[in-house]
């Protein structure tokens, strides 16, 4: 078989076998000891550090970096995990350029922040590679909590509860735990099965049972969970996908970007994945960028992201956009799909007004064997009876839903950005509140 | 987590990290915040005799030297002892100690060198419930000119005399703080011991001028066009302090005298080094003044990780390196090492070459393609290349096993033998 990027249609094996290896390797390799020392030495140990404030989980960045600088990355890891048990994944996937590193005073001083994310990875890797789990469970409380969803929110919540001595059962609809860490994050950010290894490591705390293949609403009823447990936490993420609302959307070469990515993440031999020669991705977020970049890495010849608003409105960060551009992805802004045709998509240019977006009569057509929709995810399958807010489960500052005894956090809950690190924070904080209310 | 609980001359603290007598400990506000951050104890900023308070300059008090990236390496100050009224300090000390019973509270004192002055101040501090006193015989500027501080610390007889008064008029444990501005630290330490001191602490600051203003032609810190010498502290003084601590720890007359190690302690590692060389705890000033109180958290986590990894108790570490601190004449002259460059780590900067070729033993070869290798037949193992190499651990010293050929001397590595028995030593004693 000798497919190439030029082969028409949606086909697999467009690239030589070795290319898949390097394309899907770690896109930002781990720091070695020397690099970590040099990077750590740049930190000023700021007072009330802006990086720490900018981190949604409030990791004590100056302290952990100093612990690296003084040769104790294990202590550094503990400092990180104290606040963020998924600090390993966050180190890989956080848009640091919009979070801690954007706030770093050396970004202001020299335009070169301390490499917080990579240092965080250096520290957490040191401990995780050794299989050391630095926390112990408190004495059993005899209380039991149901966590629905084994994504970052659910896992962070479960770990904190287990640490406090509660028994936790985590239910997840999918066959593997991890949520989008396992099924969503770009594969070059989470290599060597890191998501699964992290879950395994996290479970070493003990007291957590994971039941996969159990969907709330299908296999489980909320009322039953409330009966069999002392509290319930919902971290079910966003299972639905927004529609394009353009004719031709249901053609078979049109796919949800998240489904494509999830299949890609679950396929170990990437050369078996079929991909179009001309791929069009519609959307402007992290999902759009990840779908586009990975299409390119699979060997698509032309990949174009089309976004209906201006560049500054794209929720993918400047860094992510650059990454896409470097991978050879073209980004077209101010254009919305009018119709999906056989082998092409027709777009119309848009104009933005204070009142909103209008579509102009100027149109153009892009060749497209394959179209990915990445225009946002929505909450689906939220249990009846919970108040919603902006399409998500309404929660207060402690993660309490409108129904007593039910907490929620992560993407499915109102407030906060839809990021891994935010999900961890919300899961963790809800666990603290659940603990406080169970022990009251 | 290792147990860091410390018992220094009967004074207990949750960890061996105390703040040294200096601005970080000069008022209740600071000390309480330091305790909140985790410090095990404090030595309160030195108190003087009752009367009109000390006056400080109102221009710059500090000078400094920096390393790369403006890292503060050495700090110099011309500050005097506390400039707050005695009663205010005493009241605050009492309040803080009452509230923080598990932390060590030491009062540093400096009064004129006469019996009545010492008797008086000891009486005044009696009901503060402090855990001990530290006699500041160290301050090298300002107070010394008034016959106090290092002016006392440089005269062993005075040290002994004052220490005796203190032990006579007070039940409190007494720590004598020594000045490094002496040719040998031993006579002052011995004097303190003779006087009945429960411990010594060292070092106080070193007389210094950090820099000169080349427009105003005055030393810095400059007060209205003039400067005076200050006291030097911070990471730069650590090597001097370590040596002085170790000398006291190993000398037969002072061995066993508890030592509170001070001088440049910045990380857990520095602290562990002081402890290994015989200090029973450490005191910190400059690191807190540079980075804030929170710095102690790294010291705590680092020391406890180290002790855990070594499976040692804190008390096992104290003095552990003292038996290995020997005089030069007892070093093994038949011990041979060679520098080895790890080519994978080498970034080909050539600094090792410049250092060795220009200033040492011409033992590094440089090839056309900038590969740097050590010539074993020239390398005397001086360690200069290791120290100038910018990449940590890129050049290491490898020990030649016994019987191996040293290509430089053409001799095989032999058994332990030192200078005392060496044939070139006119005073050598024949080996038995
Ligand atoms: C393609 C893509 C790339 C991304 N890249 C990044 C990135 O680089 N950096 C970043 O910070 N964020 C990124 N995000 C966002 C991030 O992944 C999410 O914000 C985060 O995973 C949210 O965590 P969560 O626990 O709330 O939900 P999820 O991770 O979505 O987990 C929810 C879990 O609940 C389960 N579930 C759902 N419904 C039910 C039910 N009814 N019963 C039982 N279980 C159920 C699901 O199977 C899933 O395991 C990305 C998202 C996507 C889609
Ligand atoms: C500004 C300043 C003021 C100081 N004042 C005192 C003092 O009042 N009494 C005293 O015993 N030592 C004083 N010292 C010395 C410190 O206690 C300590 O011995 C010295 O700074 C060395 O430790 P370091 O390297 O950790 O700073 C002072 C030091 C500084 C920097
Ligand atoms: S968790 Fe993310 S935001 Fe927080 S410090 Fe780490 S990399 Fe930065
Ligand atoms: S802002 Fe930057 S320099 Fe300051 S503590 Fe954070 S990482 Fe270090
Ligand atoms: S100093 Fe170190 S890095 Fe530089 S050439 Fe020598 S061995 Fe290589």
Characterize the biggest β-sheet of chain B. 8 strands, parallel, barrel
**Poorly predicted runs of 5 or more residues of chain A:** none
Q: What's the architecture of the largest domain in chain A, going by CATH?
A: 3-Layer(bba) Sandwich
CATH class of the largest domain in chain B: Alpha Beta
By CATH, the superfamily of the largest domain in chain B comes out as: Aldolase class I
Quaternary structure of the protein: heterodimer
As for the CATH topology of the largest domain in chain A, it is FAD/NAD(P)-binding domain
Brief synopsis:
The complex is a heterodimer of chains A (440) and B (432). With 440 residues, chain A is an alpha/beta fold.
How does this structure look, described?
The complex is a heterodimer of chains A (about 450) and B (about 425). Chain A is about 35% helix and about 20% strand. Chain A is α/β, with parallel strands linked by helices and about 450 residues long. Chain A folds into three domains: about 35-130, Orthogonal Bundle (Fumarate Reductase Iron-sulfur Protein, Chain B, domain 2); about 145-240 and about 380-440, FAD/NAD(P)-binding domain; about 240-375, FAD/NAD(P)-binding domain. A five-stranded parallel β-sheet of chain A has the order 4-3-2-5-19, sandwiched between helices. In chain A, strands 7-15-9-10-11 form a five-stranded parallel β-sheet. Chain A is globular, with a radius of gyration of 22 Å. Chain B has about 425 residues and is of the alpha/beta class. Chain B is about 30% helix and about 20% strand. Chain B is built from 13 helices and 22 strands. In chain B, strand 18 and strand 19 (about 370-375) form a beta hairpin. The longest helix of chain B is centred in the last third of the chain and has 16 residues, at about 295-310. Chain B is globular and about 75 Å long. The termini of chain B are far apart. The interface of A and B includes residues 41, 66, 70 and 71 of A. Flavin-adenine dinucleotide binds near residues 261 and 410 of chain A.
């Amino acid at each position: 078989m000798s497919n190439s990027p030029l082969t028409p249609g949606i086909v697999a094996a467009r690239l030589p076998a070795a290319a898949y290896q390097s394309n899907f390797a770690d896109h930002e390799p781990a720091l070695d000891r020397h690099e970590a020392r040099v990077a750590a030495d740049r930190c000023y140990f700021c007072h009330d550090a802006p990086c720490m404030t900018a981190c949604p989980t409030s990791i004590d960045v100056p302290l952990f970096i100093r612990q690296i600088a003084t040769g104790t990355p294990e202590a550094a890891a503990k400092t990180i995990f104290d606040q963020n048990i998924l600090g390993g994944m966050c180190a890989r996937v956080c848009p640091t350029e919009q979070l801690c590193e954007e706030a770093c005073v050396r970004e202001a001083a020299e335009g070169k922040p301390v490499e917080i994310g990579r240092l965080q990875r250096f520290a957490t890797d040191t401990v995780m590679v050794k299989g050391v789990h630095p926390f112990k469970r408190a004495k059993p409380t005899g209380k039991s909590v149901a966590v629905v969803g084994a994504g970052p929110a659910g896992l962070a919540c479960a770990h904190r509860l287990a640490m406090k001595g509660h028994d936790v059962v985590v239910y997840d609809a999918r066959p593997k735990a991890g949520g989008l860490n396992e099924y969503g994050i770009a594969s070059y950010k989470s290599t060597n099965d890191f998501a699964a290894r992290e879950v395994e490591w996290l479970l070493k705390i003990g007291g957590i049972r994971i039941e996969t293949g159990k969907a709330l609403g299908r296999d489980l009823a909320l009322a039953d969970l409330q009966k069999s447990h002392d509290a319930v936490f919902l971290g079910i993420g966003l299972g639905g996908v927004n529609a394009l609302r353009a004719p031709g959307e249901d053609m078979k070469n049109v796919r949800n970007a998240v489904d494509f990515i999830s299949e890609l993440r679950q396929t170990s031999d990437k050369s078996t994945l079929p991909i179009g020669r001309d791929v069009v991705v519609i959307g402007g977020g992290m999902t759009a960028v990840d779908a586009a970049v990975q299409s390119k890495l699979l060997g698509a010849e032309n990949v174009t992201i089309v976004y209906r608003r201006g560049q500054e409105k794209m929720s993918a960060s400047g860094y992510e956009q650059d990454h896409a551009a470097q991978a050879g992805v073209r980004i077209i802004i101010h254009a919305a799909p009018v119709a999906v045709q056989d082998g092409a998509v027709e777009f119309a240019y848009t104009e933005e007004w204070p009142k909103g977006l209008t579509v102009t009569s100027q149109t153009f057509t892009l060749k497209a064997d394959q179209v990915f929709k990445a225009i946002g995810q929505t909450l689906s399958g939220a249990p009846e009876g919970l108040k919603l807010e902006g399409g998500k489960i309404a929660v207060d500052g402690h993660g309490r839903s409108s129904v007593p005894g039910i907490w929620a956090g992560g993407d499915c809950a109102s407030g906060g950005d839809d990021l891994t690190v935010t999900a961890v924070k919300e899961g963790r904080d809800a666990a603290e509140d659940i603990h406080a209310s169970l022990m009251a | 987590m290792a147990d860091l609980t410390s018992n220094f001359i009967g004074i207990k603290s949750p960890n061996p990290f105390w703040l040294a007598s200096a601005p970080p400990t000069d008022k209740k506000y600071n000390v309480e915040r330091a305790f909140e951050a985790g410090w095990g104890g404090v030595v309160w900023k030195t108190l003087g005799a009752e009367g009109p308070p000390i006056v400080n300059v109102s221009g710059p008090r500090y000078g400094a030297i920096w390393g790369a990236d403006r890292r503060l390496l050495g700090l110099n100050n011309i500050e005097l002892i506390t400039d707050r009224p005695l009663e205010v300090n005493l009241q605050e000390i009492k309040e803080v100690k009452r509230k923080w019973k598990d932390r060590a509270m030491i009062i540093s004192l400096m009064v004129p060198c006469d019996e009545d002055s010492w008797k008086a101040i000891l009486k005044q501090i009696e009901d503060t419930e402090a855990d001990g006193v530290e006699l500041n015989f160290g301050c090298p500027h300002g107070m010394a000119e008034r016959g106090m501080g290092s002016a006392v610390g440089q005269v062993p007889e005075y040290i002994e005399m004052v220490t005796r008064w203190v032990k006579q008029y007070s039940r409190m444990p007494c720590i004598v703080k020594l000045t490094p501005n002496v040719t040998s630290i031993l006579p002052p330490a011995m004097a303190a011991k003779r006087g009945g001191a429960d411990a010594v602490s060292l070092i106080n600051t070193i007389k210094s001028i950090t820099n000169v203003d080349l427009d105003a032609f005055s030393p810095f810190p400059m007060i209205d066009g003039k400067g005076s010498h200050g006291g030097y502290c911070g990471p730069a003084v650590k090597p001097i302090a370590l040596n002085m601590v170790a000398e006291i720890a190993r000398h037969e007359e002072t061995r066993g005298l508890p030592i509170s190690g001070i001088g440049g302690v910045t990380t857990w590692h520095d602290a562990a080094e002081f402890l290994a060389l015989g200090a029973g705890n450490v005191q910190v000033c400059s690191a807190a003044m540079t980075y804030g109180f929170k710095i102690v958290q790294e010291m705590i986590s680092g020391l406890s990780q180290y002790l855990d990894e070594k499976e040692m108790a804190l008390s096992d570490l104290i003095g552990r390196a003292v038996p290995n601190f020997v005089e030069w004449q007892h070093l093994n002259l038949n011990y041979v090492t060679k520098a080895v460059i790890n080519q994978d780590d080498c970034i080909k900067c050539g600094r090792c070459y410049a250092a060795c070729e220009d200033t040492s033993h011409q033992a590094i070869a440089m090839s056309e393609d900038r590969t740097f290798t050590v010539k074993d037949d020239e390398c005397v193992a001086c360690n200069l290349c290791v120290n100038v190499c910018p990449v940590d651990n890129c050049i290491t010293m490898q020990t030649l096993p016994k019987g191996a050929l040293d290509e430089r001397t053409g001799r095989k590595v032999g058994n332990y033998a030192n200078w005392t028995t060496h044939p070139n030593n006119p005073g050598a004693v024949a080996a038995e």
